[in-house]
Specification:
The chain contains 13 helices and 2 strands, in the order αββαααααααααααα. By secondary structure, the protein is mainly α. The chain has 2 domains: 44 residues; 229 residues, MetI-like fold. Strands 1-2 form a two-stranded antiparallel sheet. α3 crosses α7, α5 crosses α7 and α7 packs across α9. The termini are far apart. The model has no long low-confidence stretch (mean pLDDT 85).
Length: 322
């Protein structure tokens, strides 16, 4: 036992120093292993994002500078910015489709927001049968765009739809073909999309209303504030973040709306209801011009990116989150 005890201070430092260095070396390697573990756990999701998002986006940018038309393969090849030059200066459809897209987004988002807010305020109140009315009001959101189209084509049908019913009641002659009339087609598709999109705002705003602190409403009522003042000074400030987020999301979705317009009007009459994404779809599926369709997609992507950044800056969304 005596021989195992270090005989001098030098041996003491040597023996115990070696023992104390080993845990220190191990502790230096642990942060490295720990830093790799989150990336290993995230790697399946990152791979999926790379395969299904990053690669398609990069491929669209790549194809935008090439001529790729399966009906004219002998013309395929690198053409640089020729697609963009033609788009901005010669294409007779690009600018009208972009203007209509902006008009479509503004009208739809504002209309859906106002109607959705009204519905959310109504179904947030306590009354008999509230659960049933919530289910009825929210049900259009679960219906696909193609099925929505089928419903509203039947509604607008001059022979069997609402105008026929009104004619039987002595209102009008029942011959209005609103989907082919240039004076009525825009508002006809707007109403159909409002019916489908309003429940989204109603659901999101109702969820936010139910988290509103009731003590603020009680304090405002004690101060003599009426319904309008409570709405302006308590409800709207509480809904601000939800309104900013939902209008941005819905604006992007409405800009990219293809299914309803394609199946209801196919962009007609005379291209009056052709949005930019619908024009992209036609270039790819009908003209088979994937190069030009990719160039149009790049422009749409840049427009959405710039508008989203500016919108968030103007509404101070980041500051609101902080």
């Amino acid at each position: 036992m005596i021989d195992e005890i270090p005989r001098s201070a030098t041996e003491l430092v040597t023996v115990y120093g070696k023992e104390s260095d080993e845990p220190r070396r191990r502790s230096r390697t642990r942060p490295l292993r720990g830093s790799l573990r989150p990336w290993l756990l995230l790697s399946p999701m990152l791979i999926l994002i790379a395969v299904f998002i990053a690669f398609p986006v990069a491929n669209v940018f790549y194809n935008s500078v090439f001529e790729k038309n399966i009906t004219q393969p002998w013309n395929d090849g690198f053409i640089g910015l020729e697609h963009f030059r033609y788009m901005f200066f010669e294409d007779p459809t690009f600018w009208p489709s972009l203007v209509f897209s902006a008009k479509w987004v503004v009208v739809e988002v504002i209309g859906q927001l106002i109607l959705g807010l009204i519905i959310a305020l109504v179904v947030n109140e306590a009354f008999r049968g509230r659960g049933l009315w919530r289910a009825v009001v929210f049900s259009p959101w679960a219906i696909s765009g193609v099925l929505t189209t089928a419903i509203w084509i039947l509604v607008y049908n001059p022979g069997t739809g609402i105008f026929r019913l009104l004619a039987e009641m002595g209102i009008g002659d029942g011959t209005q073909a609103v989907l082919v009339n240039p004076d009525t087609v825009f508002w006809a598709v707007v109403v159909a999309e409002l019916w489908r999109g309003v429940p989204f705002f109603a659901i999101m705003l109702l969820a936010e209303l139910q988290s509103a602190p009731q003590d603020l409403y009680e304090a405002a009522a004690m101060d003599g504030a009426g319904r309008i003042k409570r709405f302006m000074n308590v409800t709207l400030p509480h809904l601000k973040t939800a309104i900013i987020l939902t209008t941005l999301l819905r604006g992007v979705w409405e800009f990219n709306n293809v299914d309803l317009l394609l199946t209801m009007t196919n962009g007609g009459p005379a291209g009056m209801t052709t949005t930019l994404p619908l024009y992209v779809a036609k270039q790819a599926t009908q003209a088979h011009d994937f190069g030009y369709g990719s160039a149009l997609t790049v422009v749409a992507f840049v427009i959405l990116l710039i508008v989203s950044i500016v919108y968030l800056k103007l509404t101070a969304f980041a500051k609101e989150e902080d």
